[in-house]
Amino acid sequence: MDETVAEYIRRIVLKIPKDEIKTMLQKWGFLSEAQLRTLNFHQIKDSISQEVVQLCVENSADIKQAAVLDIIYNHIYQNKRMWSVYQMKKSGEELEYFDITDFKKKFKGRLRSALKNVTITFKEYEDNAIWIRVAWGTLHKKPNQYKPSYVVYHSQTPYVFVSASMLKSTLPLLCQALIVASNYHDIREMELRSHSLNSLKDIVFKRYSQNFQTYSPKHLQGGNMEPKSEDLRVVQENRSEKERRHRLNWEVFGDGPQPKLEYAQYRLETMFKSDPKMNVLDKKEPFRCLVKFSSPHLLESLKSLAPAGMADARLSPLLTCIPHKARNYFKIKEKKVLHPENFVSP
Amino acid sequence: HLATSLPLPSERDHLRPRIDLIVFMIDIKSKYSLKNVETSLAHVDASFFLGKVCFLVTGVGRLNSCSVEMNAVCKLGETYCSPVLFCELELEGIRVSTAQRLLRMLQICAGHTPGVSALSFVSLMRSSDDN
């Protein structure tokens, strides 16, 4: 068996947490149950990985099987990677029947005709997600298995989730192969990035709990508002104000959990407005500035600002529009039109 | 009675009993809370400042997240002739003992302790300043 394949498998096994190794190998299905039973999972990981490689040698594993193991690892630990979202466009309104074999054939064909050396692996999951792993090489070099790109495509949607390889130059080729294979005619990158793949899916598939402007005026969030048990001897003087703030917050964020994003970035290209007497930046150039919000869970923290009394109930629409507009990277230019919708440009 | 700021909402005026003690809580982690207290002080009748006002600074257990200057708080206490108490709400022991102190002050302010009135606090403060 190829030494590089053995080493690659060994490295994957070393990444897996010790108590997960057995389950993952079972999911992989390349080693038989009998072989798995011979493995001692109580020794140090180094030794476990050596034993696994030994078994793989016995079964003559090649890079294709190793790549499948890699997909399985990255599917379970998907949140370790940074994902971007791409949207594909069709030229017409034809609803074509999606044929997975045809898709795979076209995808592989497109990549291989451009670059002879690529390793392409597919794995389908129950939620209609097709996971694609591509390891990139060049005309003369074998594919680098340690810097692959991962693509997740839900065939019934025009969205593709990409965790790109460090090799930036491979991105255009990847996009091209995707539109050719899926019969779309254009693809564009959305300004939406996160570590949580499921949250990105929630946002573009509109699966999170949204709140609509119309609501019943009598609907008060009695359950959510007072998590601590209230002592009846304590009188809240500003109860109506508190209730109003909670209601406004609920209107914006809704009841359910928010999608998990780590950043919101605003690139400002607006003019600096100051007292003309101050003589600051009298050049008529836009003041360039980057504002970045980061948090382990940005939207939840924004949601908890008003109830914690740290912000007025009405947060800036630039923050609250993030899930609806499906973007967390913004470019803000000068307001030319009165209509606020035109204020934020792609 | 808990309020987020002063003045108190007028719609509840008829439901309110006599106010014996006002405790202004300042969260040491929030500049906003200090500002809020400063603006609210303007709405307090002058008679309260004869011992019926006290400042309670919370969150002192986490001095590394301090946003409020100690000087500013002590100055506030001096300006308004009112005591400044420090506590950490997250520690049960300190929470309980602070509550007991406030309760004692309240008893005196409400006139339940014979021989001692709220004015005593003012004179007590005077003497500590002379140090």
TrEMBL record, chain A:
Keywords, ordered alphabetically: Centromere, Chromosome, Nucleus
GO terms for cellular component: chromosome, centromeric region; nucleoplasm
Annotated compartments: Chromosome, Centromere; Nucleus
First-listed, main subcellular location of the protein, grouped into a coarse class: nucleus
Biological processes per GO annotation: CENP-A containing chromatin assembly; chromosome segregation
PANTHER family given in the database record: CENTROMERE PROTEIN N
Protein family membership: Belongs to the CENP-N/CHL4 family.
Protein name in the entry: CENPN protein
Protein source organism: Grantiella picta
TrEMBL record, chain B:
Record-linked InterPro entries: Centromere_Cenp-M, P-loop_NTPase
Record Pfam families: CENP-M
Claim: Disulfide bond is one of the keywords in the record: no
GO CC annotations on file: chromosome, centromeric region; nucleus
Highest taxon of the lineage: Eukaryota
Subcellular location: Chromosome, Centromere; Nucleus
UniProt protein name: Centromere protein M
Organism: Grantiella picta
